[in-house]
Write a structure and sequence with these properties.
Length: about 250
Amino acid sequence: MTVKLIIADVDGCLCPEESIAWDLEKFTELAKYVRDGSHGPFTPAPMTLCTGRPQPYVEVLMKILDIRVPAICENGAVIYTLHANRARYSPGVTKEGILRLRELRTMIENEILSEHPEAVIQFGKEAQISVFSENTSLFPEIRSQVEDFVRRRQGPDIEISMSHYYINISLKEVDKGRAIERLLKELGLARDQVAGVGDTEGDLPLRNAVGFFACPANSREGVKSVADYVSPYPDIKGMLDILHRPELRRRGR
């Protein structure tokens, strides 16, 4: 397999899931690797991001890392191109769907967050909702309340996934995998020419959309069980280990 693109999640892969300072030394090493991949046809392969984070957050990372391939934000709902400074919705995101998500967000803010003050909504998202809490024992109840609201209102059709500290609510059939399929079609790349890195169940669609999939040591067991390679190191140390795997190197012309 000749890898022509690497697609990586952010939280849990490029950095810890926790809200703490990043390892600057390791991130500088990562930045050099990614910038080298963006500058020419030789090794390493270029990289882009596929994350639940909102577009402004992703834009900053793309500038720091000099990522020139479009990135995927909001768990597949948004595709962002840095050089054109253009964000667009992925297939499956409709105006009606966004309006219904806003109704759901209002309910979460007014009812769920008032009941559970240790939970907060992640700001900056347009077509997806993420609720954060370090007390993840709240998630089953929050999920039940969201599903009950959707059932009573007869929509929107949603899919719910969990990460280490987030419960993520997406429009049905809008996920990382479908966004990647769209992106690869636009780039003229086949599945077996692409590698992916992820760490939680929300990255399973990423696993299914690429030819080679790896994960760091901090990944969920369900992700490790389907990975082609599991690094013995966590988050960014694992990411650097993965990037130096022979499967992720590309040959020059």
